[in-house]
Amino acid sequence: MLLKLDDNAVHPYATLPSTNNCVKPKNSQIIRFAGLKISTINQNTKKEEINDSDKLLCGELDVTDCNLDYNIGNNFYNHLMIICGKRKDVDACQGDSGGGMLDNANVLHGVLVTIGSKVCQSPVHFMDICSYRTWISKITNN
């Protein structure tokens, strides 16, 4: 996903974890992520409504266990490749995929993936960067 930012926008750069010491965030560690979908409950119908936002939305989650193996189409993702985050009233929706998962030092640890058929879900699932860190270095000559 590419975003066009205003010239005067100031955002810290995300860095990749070290190739030699790439580790998943620990359970209960606070992580941040971003997306463009809003999930709200319609007070009249009591049904969930999904809307687009005109602003990039940020959320905080606490890393939690992913106790499942995931089979998506022809791809199989085990719990070693997925990082989960959860917090009350925070979810991710279809359309948020591709957003980064960062720690407080702006180190990128994961990329948001949609797993399952729900429109919105919690816990939020991220593909672990460490599973691909060596490949990323090779491709980017970094």
From TrEMBL:
A Pfam short name: Trypsin
Domain Peptidase S1: 48-136
Chain segments annotated as transmembrane: none
InterPro entries noted in UniProt: Peptidase_S1_PA, Peptidase_S1_PA_chymotrypsin, Trypsin_dom
The protein, known as: Peptidase S1 domain-containing protein
Organism of this sequence: Umbra pygmaea
